[in-house]
Design a protein that fits this description.
This protein has 441 residues and is mostly helical. The chain is built from 16 helices and no strands.
Length: 441
């Protein structure tokens, strides 16, 4: 037996880390990991509170689908096939109405048609082969290979992209029914029960998605296009105020803030990367119906407007690169082009903002054409001024930056005219309303 002198030091010794170290490690773990994750989750919820609502909606839909197991009469009817309703809710419930409707309708139609075709192929194989089981397997294998190959190839066709999910489910359902048909005693009942449970799950997901705080892709696309156009207008108006400020060459802004930190210099950058979002929203919006848009709204025209806006944004990107340039142009040269350049920036900026308002509020733009005509006149005058300038009178390295800015502004005007034409076409196709005239007393 060990003596107390031997036991004492061992039992008093802490095999773990000292308490100060443990507190320090826990504090660092909290600061670096747990706190960071908590702040990220909080920021995601604050950026778009609809994400929190979406999580609650999915939870509600899954709970409703699980009643197929909880309610005994329903469970006695479907048995374990009720799990297909639960799987369907989880698979098709998306953030927006268009995505949920698209997946739900695709799944219902693909499941029904795939199962029906599978049963039909089973009957053909059974009657052609008779009691010859290997012959039946050969017929089934031939049809599974042929239809699977054809439907997979169809997924590459651009026009069928909105039905890609349906084609995948069709292949899956047809293959499952065809392969299991020879080993399943009551094939028709199983097929009917699975189709019904999948329809029930799809209906639950669609009703919950539309009935509780719906998120419409059409509205999101409309706001995205309008905001992108407005960002370009903000840049041009900000460019006028900062680039030609008080006749100085690229000073700090009027409030003393560095130009790199001005919001208008960063806002347009998101326009350059919005192509995939616009196309995805336009494809999903086709599945939606809303009182503002209806079924036959010209969503492709929004994509066209977005593409023209992006084309203009690339020219804006070139303008942005001339802020804080190294060489200082002579005052005489800048004063010759300043008036026309500022007029182009002012008129095109206001025209873009009016176009953005027209898209967002679905009203016809009224004074856009007048502003564009003014900017075209200013660009023609600027062209004449640039032709009249003699290079011998200036240092070429000093006048290249403002001359390049002037040339880019001249190129911006036709781009904005194209955007205006596309918005006018959108207004015609969508039957935009004419804004009420305000009559002063």
């Amino acid at each position: 037996m060990m003596s107390p002198e031997t036991v004492g030091p061992i039992t008093n010794y802490n095999y773990g880390l000292p308490s100060e170290w443990r507190k320090s490690l826990l504090q660092r773990l909290w600061d670096n990991k747990v706190y960071g994750v908590a702040m990220t989750i909080k920021k995601i919820g604050q950026d778009d509170p609809r994400r929190i609502v979406h999580g609650l909606k999915v939870g509600l839909a899954v709970t409703l689908a699980s009643f197929l197991f909880y309610i005994k009469p329903i469970y006695d009817r479907f048995n374990q096939d009720g799990i297909w309703a639960l799987m369907t809710v989880v698979l098709i419930f998306e953030f927006s109405v268009g995505a949920t409707l698209g997946k739900g309708l695709n799944r219902m139609m693909a499941t029904s048609s795939g199962a029906a075709l599978g049963v039909g192929i089973h009957n053909i194989a059974f009657r052609s082969a008779g009691s010859n089981l290997p012959g039946e397997f050969m017929v089934l294998g031939f049809f599974v290979f042929t239809i699977g190959a054809i439907c997979t190839f169809m997924r590459f066709i651009p026009a069928l992209k909105p039905y890609d999910y349906g084609l995948m489910i069709f292949i899956l359902t047809f293959s499952m029914v065809s392969v299991s048909s020879s080993r399943t005693p009551d094939l028709r009942k199983i097929v009917i029960d699975r189709i019904l449970t999948i329809i029930i799950g799809s209906v639950i997901a669609i009703v919950v998605c539309i009935g509780i705080c719906p998120v419409w892709n059409g509205e999101n696309l409309q706001n995205l296009i309008a905001n992108n156009i407005e960002k370009l207008g903000n840049f041009l108006e900000g460019f006028k105020g900062e680039y030609f400020h008080k006749g100085e060459y690229f000073p700090k802004s009027e409030d003393g803030q560095p130009l790199d930190n001005k919001p208008f210099r960063k806002g347009y950058k998101s326009v350059l990367t919005s192509k995939s979002s616009e196309e995805t929203m336009a494809n999903l919006a086709r599945w939606e119906w809303q009182y503002r848009f209806g079924f036959k709204h010209p969503w492709k025209q929004y994509v066209k407007v977005g593409a023209l806006t992006r084309e203009c944004a690339y020219k804006i990107e070139a303008l942005n690169s001339y802020f804080n340039f190294e060489f200082q142009a002579p005052y005489e040269f800048r004063s010759k082009i300043q008036e026309q350049c500022t007029q182009i920036c002012s008129e095109t900026g206001k025209a873009l903002k009016e176009l953005a308002t027209a898209v967002k509020e679905m009203t016809k733009p009224t004074s856009v054409n007048i502003r564009i005509e003014k900017s075209k006149v200013a660009s023609q005058k600027l062209n004449v001024l640039l032709d009249m300038i003699l290079l011998e009178d200036y240092n070429l390295r000093e006048i290249i930056p403002p001359a390049a800015v002037a040339l880019i502004l001249i190129d911006v005007v036709p781009c904005i005219e194209k955007i205006a034409d596309a918005v006018h076409e959108l207004a015609y196709l969508s039957h935009f309303k004419t804004p009420d005239s305000i009559v002063s007393p």
